[in-house]
Design a protein that fits this description.
By secondary structure, this protein is of the alpha/beta class. 38% of the residues lie in helices and 11% in strands. The protein is built from 18 helices and ten strands. The protein has a ten-stranded mixed sheet with strand order 1-2-3-5-4-6-7-8-9-10, sandwiched between helices. Helix 4 crosses helix 5 and helix 6 crosses helix 9. The termini are close together.
Length: 539
């Protein structure tokens, strides 16, 4: 499954080319009022320093069951509260999703909490084990993503063999040294959950406050199950169904993305004067699959944009509505004039680069829970592709390294919130394709102390802090008081809010304006980069 990159990397014109390195501390600074035992220092990396973040690290056991054994280093950042000592409320650990997303810039979300509530907390960013600036970090094959690839749809046996062989080679590369195999043996969700508790202890916090997006919501649920008495205020946005990890969630995603792309085609059809693709969404949809076939024969953008590259680029509009106008314009240029440069740039920004994120994504998901064999995977994908073709084969091959992963499987953690007294705040849009709304309903049922806030009719993944006052104010009130919306009978939601809206365009809007018009108060570009890049790797 791919659990998105919190918000689409495609919105960023000048994005993070790579996750910043923490760098060596410049000078030690005093611990905050939390009683932290971590030596914080000004970050040496410009991206982090410009956000007024401090950097630190924490040694934790490679094997949590052997606390005196080999240690690894977790990279951390901190955004210190600016409130008075009397208003200070403690620390909040954050996670942007993935698995595999770097969280070093994520403390910036504190700026987005209404009423200045975010300024009453210290916000903590973390590169989980194996990720980014934590050491060791996992790398497998930097050439895995590229161009000159065949279609995702295996119309021939040769295409099927290509993707199976490519992914077998990737999984083999992830285990081709003793050091990698040693790390792979301890890369499960439970390993990271135990690291989270080690961070809590090092920060001097009796209870953990946590803000998790996408895969981060699963970390939160597992943490609450293992350490129920240590749960503080948990905001879980884009909620994973803990009973369907991970193969079944991928099938759910295939259905959801197909539906969301239909909504995008309707958006294009509603603005024929802007996008010039006609007013019938079904015709626009047919044109997309026709273009995939054409690109299979003759790639665009100087031979770089083939069918699989276009398919990867278009996945982002199934995640988020923020960039629909720009995507619509760039897609129109491809369809009407066969100018594929802009669409290739979307693919490049979202999918190409260092493979650390993808390596960790596989290291976690391929070992967290049992994965079916090749025969069943191909059978399920063939069947689902008949009704939901947009993402099915794309997602199949994205997860195919799990078919030959070398690490031993672990038991799926049981998730139960019956012993958790603290209130949890769950957030999900009802048509989120990456983390379907049904997962939030399941989590609410498992955690009797949780309340669910739903963005009705929305297709955006992990949508909090995007300017919807109903959602964002609920978060601020919760972080200030600890209270959540009163639970209703049945499966909720406990509070219904408007959805994040796509960019608003008039029927006569020009193509130039379509690239820049926006639908309201949006998340800051820097914060979007952090979340998008993190979740893009875990669809």
């Amino acid at each position: 499954m791919r659990l998105a990159a919190l918000l689409p990397a495609l919105l960023v014109v000048t994005g993070l080319a790579a996750v910043p390195s923490v760098g060596a501390p410049a000078a030690a600074v005093g611990a905050a009022a939390s009683g932290s035992t971590i030596a914080w220092a000004p970050c040496t990396d410009a991206w982090l320093r410009n956000r007024e973040l401090e950097c630190g690290s924490l040694a934790v056991p490679l094997d949590p069951a052997a606390p005196d054994g080999t240690k690894i280093q977790l990279a951390l950042t901190r955004r210190v509260h600016t409130s008075s000592a009397e208003d200070y409320r403690g620390v909040v650990l954050t996670n942007p999703g993935g698995p595999g997303g770097s969280g070093l810039l994520l403390p910036a979300i504190g700026e987005r909490i209404p009423d200045g509530v975010g300024e009453t907390y210290d916000w903590i960013g973390l590169d989980p084990r194996g990720v980014g600036s934590s050491t060791p970090s996992l790398h497998c094959n930097s050439d895995y993503f590229g161009t000159d690839r065949p279609s995702y749809t295996p119309r021939t046996k040769a295409i099927r063999r290509y993707w199976l062989r490519k992914n077998r080679a990737y999984s083999a590369a992830c285990a081709n040294t003793a050091a990698k195999r040693s790390l792979l043996a301890h890369m499960t969700t439970m390993d990271t959950v135990q690291d989270m508790d080690a961070v809590r202890a090092a920060l001097g916090a009796e209870k953990l406050n946590f803000y998790g997006f996408s895969y981060g919501t699963y970390l939160g649920q597992v943490y609450a199950t293992r350490y129920p008495s240590r749960v503080g205020r948990f905001v879980l946005d884009g909620v994973i169904d803990p009973q369907r990890t991970w193969y079944a969630v991928g099938l759910d995603q295939d259905r959801g993305f197909d539906a969301n792309l239909n909504t995008f085609w309707k958006y294009l059809a509603a603005h024929p004067g802007t996008f010039r693709l006609g007013g019938k969404w079904t015709a626009i949809r047919r044109g997309y699959y026709r273009k995939l076939a054409q690109l299979d024969r003759r790639p665009a953008a100087g031979g770089k944009l083939g069918p699989s590259e276009l398919a990867d680029a278009m996945v982002e509009v199934g995640y988020y509505v923020y960039g629909w106008a720009e995507y619509g314009f760039d897609y129109s240029q491809l369809i009407r004039k066969n100018r594929g440069g802009a669409m290739f740039a979307h693919y490049r920004d979202s999918a190409m680069g260092d493979d650390n994120n993808f390596a960790v994504y596989n290291a976690v998901q391929c070992t967290d829970a049992p994965w079916p064999g090749t025969r069943r995977t191909l059978r399920d994908s063939t069947k689902l592709n008949r009704t939901d073709p947009f993402l099915t084969w794309n997602n199949t091959w994205y997860n195919a390294p799990c078919l030959s992963w070398k690490s031993a499987e672990h038991a799926r953690p049981a998730v139960s919130g019956a012993s958790v007294d603290a209130k949890l705040l769950l957030i999900n849009e009802t048509r989120d394709a990456s983390t379907p709304y049904s997962g939030a309903v399941t989590a609410r049922r498992l955690f009797p102390s949780a309340s669910l806030v739903a963005g009705i009719g929305g297709t955006t993944h992990a949508s909090s802090l995007s300017g919807v006052a109903c959602v964002d104010q609920t978060i601020a009130d919760y972080l200030r008081t600890g209270f959540v919306p009163k639970r209703v009978d049945g499966d909720g939601p406990d509070r219904s809010c408007p959805a994040v809206q796509p960019p608003s365009l008039s029927g006569r809007a020009s193509s130039r304006s379509a690239r820049t018009m926006d639908g309201g108060d949006r998340m800051s570009p820097l914060l979007r980069q952090v979340l998008i890049r993190a979740q893009r790797w875990g669809r």
